[in-house]
Amino acid sequence: MVNKANGPAAREGTGRGRGRRPADEVRADVLRTVGELLLTEGIADLTFERVARTSGVSKTTLYKWWPSKGALALDGYVHAVQETLAFPDTADIRADLLTQLRAFAHVMTETPGGRVLTELIGESQTDQDLATAYREVYSSHRRRLAVERLHRAQEQGQIRADIDVQVLVDQLWGAVYHRLLIPDEPVTDAFVTALVGNLLDGVRPA
Amino acid sequence: MVNKANGPAAREGTGRGRGRRPADEVRADVLRTVGELLLTEGIADLTFERVARTSGVSKTTLYKWWPSKGALALDGYVHAVQETLAFPDTADIRADLLTQLRAFAHVMTETPGGRVLTELIGESQTDQDLATAYREVYSSHRRRLAVERLHRAQEQGQIRADIDVQVLVDQLWGAVYHRLLIPDEPVTDAFVTALVGNLLDGVRPA
Lengths: 206, 206
What we know:
Two copies of one chain form a homodimer.
Chain A: H1 2-14, H2 23-41, H3 48-55, H4 59-65, H5 69-81, H6 93-110, H7 113-124, H8 128-155, H9 165-181, H10 189-201
Helix pairs in contact in A: 2-5, 5-7, 5-8, 6-7, 6-9, 6-10, 7-8, 9-10
């Protein structure tokens, strides 16, 4: 019975060129393809041509959904990293920030993902459309997730109520971006640990 | 006597095309011209052609000293802002950081200087020569000045001895760059004040 009910739909879902699949499913497939490509090879070899070939989706459809390579790359990147870069909540803000920031630093320094982001940020300094896409598809979304976790820490009494947690986003993740974009100093585990300690404990003598 | 000793040299120093002036003096003149141009008009209209015309120095000489527009812009920018962005030392690290960061935020948000830097940082993501020039001419020098001031605060017992002050550079100036490069949130005076307070006081409840 299970086979009968799921069989044809399941086959239709995986086969290509055998009738129409739901658009959501096709989109998710494309984003998976793009995300894998970005995290293994980087952005240089990402072309609509290649994504069309690999995913079996026409270039016309791809351009309809993602008007530029930057938009396609960002959306693929977001989908590729959303689980790795989730914000854990074990009710211990120090431990959770360290976990998340270490995962973030790993993606940024050990996979081509870091290069993808710094190049997109770079290009967005002179490309207004890309800057808008970057904020809408990626950065404002990531900022919101971070702020939500920091607000819960405030509710749990681990961060003072008078602190504007938006500023902490710039002093944690923003500080990492600073070292990636202007690499005078490296992103190390000691750096990540110090970012969290400096803010939670303060740097003045006791 | 004074006139006789200084007269001819002084006249030679200010006149153009009246014999050779010392190279250092000519260089300083060019950098002043470039710096003024950058802080009033931005980088878009900066060309070797125009700098040659304004400063009366041949393009050949300009190219010899600064092999690219990026290198020329950076050097001019450094000279234009070095006094405004000096690191004061009144023996009060909180007050001095606020003074310096406010001057920095002003240059970055109220003059074309901010755009100059963010565009150069942007371009340096894909231009290795510019990235090297940026670090050598600008960022590593600015970082060193900040670190020197923070080290003096450590010696004066205002910052704990176990703190790696390099990290504070990323959590103060780097946090400002983050808002400039990815403008999800604005650079305001409240932001600058919070940057300093969060680090000196910590964000945990007392």
